[in-house]
Design goal:
The complex is a heterodimer of chains A (about 500) and B (about 425). By secondary structure, chain A is of the alpha/beta class. Chain A is built from 17 helices and 24 strands. In chain A, strand 21, helix 15 and strand 22 form a beta-alpha-beta unit. With about 425 residues, chain B is mainly alpha-helical. Chain B is globular and about 60 Å long. Classes of the chains: A alpha/beta (about 500), B mainly alpha (about 425).
Chain lengths: ~500, ~425
Amino acid sequence: MAEAPLLELRGITKRFPGVLANDNVNFDLGSGEVHALLGENGAGKSTLMNILYGLYTPDEGEILLRGKPIELGSTRAAIEHGIGMVHQHFMLIPVMTVAENIVLATEPRHAGVLLDYDAARKRVRELSERYGLLVDPDARVDRISVGQQQRVEILKALYRGAEILILDEPTAVLTPQESKELFEILESLRSQGKSIIFISHKLNEVLEVADRITTLRRGVVVDTIPAAGATEESLARMMVGREVLLRVEKKAGHPGEPLLQVEDLNVIDDRGLEMVRGVSFEVRGGEILGLAGVDANGQSELIDAIAGLRPVQSGRIVVDGHDLTHAKAKEALDTGIGHIPEDRHRRGLVLPFTLTENLALHAYRQPPNSKRGFLNLSAMTARARKLLKEFDVRGGTPTTPAGALSGGNQQKVVLAREIDGDPKVLIAAQPTRGLDVGAIEFVHGRLLEQRDAGRAIFLVSLELEEILSLSDRILVIYEGQIAGEFPPTATEEELGLAMTGGRRRGEEAA
Amino acid sequence: MSDDEKRASDDVELAKSQDDVEQAPLEPGAVPPPSIHFASRFDGLSGIIAPLITTLLAFLMGGLVVALTGKNPLKVYHAIFNGTGLNWFFHVGNYSARIPFSTQHMWFPWDTASVAAQNLQQTLLQTTPIILTGLAVAFAFRCGLFNIGGQGQYFAGTIFAVWLGSSFLNMSPWLHVPLVLVVGALAGAVWAGIAGILKATVGAHEVISTIMLNWTAIWVAEYLLGQGGPMQGSQPSIPISHDIAEGAKLPVIWGLKLLQGLSIGIFIAIAMLVVYWIIINRTTLGFEVRSVGFNPEAARYSGISVARSYFIAMAISGSFAGLAGALDITGWEYHLGQSDIPVNAIGFIGLAAALLGRNTALGVGMASLLFGALINGTSGRQLDPSIFRPDLAGNLTTIIQGLVILFVGLNLGGVWIWLKRRRRA
């Protein structure tokens, strides 16, 4: 390659108070290339891309476009240079239509003041057909799926003339199916000459879509390698800086007595729709039961019902012989249900609370943490100190607010609290969502450890790989019903078929 | 190595191990834009800097208003300061003071009978109910509730204090005073509890219901004390209640009862600051209240009854405001007149005190002293009309209060919590 690359970042350094976020980073992007930027949470990926998008100015280094240095003082400048970014959290106006959102700020007008909606719609149609990004221009943004909202974001960037697209963790919010569709879109964009920077910490995705992969660790570029020939193992090693166990080493379980029994359970959601319909299963001590399914097929309602957070319409929930069908959360906790909630920010943690307080969120009622209604702060702190050490929570002391920790460490805090409650049944809902490989390894290890300690683990996850590698038995839920039971030796295809309402196991192919 | 040392070194170790992992502020998506960096600094200084700047700004702008009237702001502020009696502390000398509840005297560095001393007594009398109505707002706030009903709860306290205080004429003060105070506090608790129950059961927004309960309390009081009303005193054409019994009056410990001296009410208020601090920071109830305030969903998930917390927090909150009313009646007012009702705004000043004091015990105490001093220092009785007209000065107080609320609203978590909850709803 003799010619200059389309885009080049040279020696970028960015410091924040007390932190070196990017240290002499070099990065380049060829025309029509998908270049993945890989790294753990906090490795400096987002900082680097925010520099490229004009949100930050680097302390040192320069940015070259087609061989010429450019100044990016603002996002406007970046857009003018043909750089577009799709953020992890979408920047759309929910009550406006797709077309309105896309043309916003540079809209076609009648007489200089009125929006020429027909022209806007027409141009959105053209763009969406050209790149295979199918969306209805007249749909209101709050009525379309997350995957489609993402397409709107991409279209918005293309509408503004982006030649270089930065996608920040684009699959984090997508279902597996939507991710597949996104990859097809990226392929079509590339074939039409667009260049793409794909930020991720998911190894398989990076291998699937990228031409080249650059790995960042603690603000430093570890290496830039072609995707061809790289393996998940080699990438993980680059990313974390040590050998990582990607495949879980699992001994055979020794299932004991059934600790959680669910019989013919029916649960409705807030809208009154029946989301769980006649579900029955049991989880034995010493086994992990995995529940696979596409998002919003009743998993959340099922978990909430077991944890006493949602009333049960009919059916029975029994935990270790105690009927918890109509129990409230406190009774469920007291009877021995531990619950790693799927959304740790909304439910799992009180972010402004200190780690001590978060770790005591259930146990504050019991001595020695409190006596006769008065808290015993020194006991609470001592307990927190012990748990933080035991669960290797880093980046915080007992008095650090939970909100200041990284996602992986926050999840360790939740894990520590739930396991320390000595539950008989541990519900793990999406326990590794948004975590990087190092943290995933930790969480998986702990779950297996708890299984071997004789607890009944009910694992609910959207990640098939996670379900397959951890579970002793697998159930698939589809539209609120159990669509089949599978052994851990089942293939992703088998599960995938059941998850989308295909034939059940044992039935004849249609 | 002692236990404490060991703990400390553990903490250092934990903190050090940060270097091994990603730095927390650098999570993707959580990378703070530079402007937030600055704001977080501002917030980080234990929340003391922001209220100070807020107050300073409010006084600066108040000074501008004074300058617009053609007066010298510095002179006016100096006069107001002297009117508050806070200058009393600067005149140290060789004096004697009577030991409270006795006829004995002892040496004292300040003159307890000077004009400044009398001014200070009035300032502290003003401060007493503000502390309590401030605590009423603060306590609810900690539970994520915006109690704007301090005024109504205060009136509930005053009405019951007048009623019980003017009954039982021969009761022993040892019984009468606690009875009046406890029932006054309970009346406030019930009044706020109504809003709490509505919130807990049908989800009625507490802002709306407490505002409506304010008006209900005001008009009930107007009726009770008005011409021919059941609580009107012995003089037929004057809409004022009976005086409370001597035995229901709080002991005056500084100054003369006739000259509206300082009662022990201020110490009760300060004790309540301590009680507030203990409940919030050291009890399981406070832990629950704070969890619900920060994240009701996480609290529910942890087995805390959010509805119960809402009700209890409102009731406790109201009991502070009710106690404020009872202390005013038993401490210096001794009766209630119909004309006192519409001019009283102590509940709303409490709101300002809680906002400025960031809902902490110390903060509410300091902010209450500030507002109590301002009200007293700008009152017609204290301020020399040749320096600044007291009626204008009273407005100056209102201006400064208003500005404080405005500025606090710009950066305080309180309004933020409220907005956040609204967004979620």
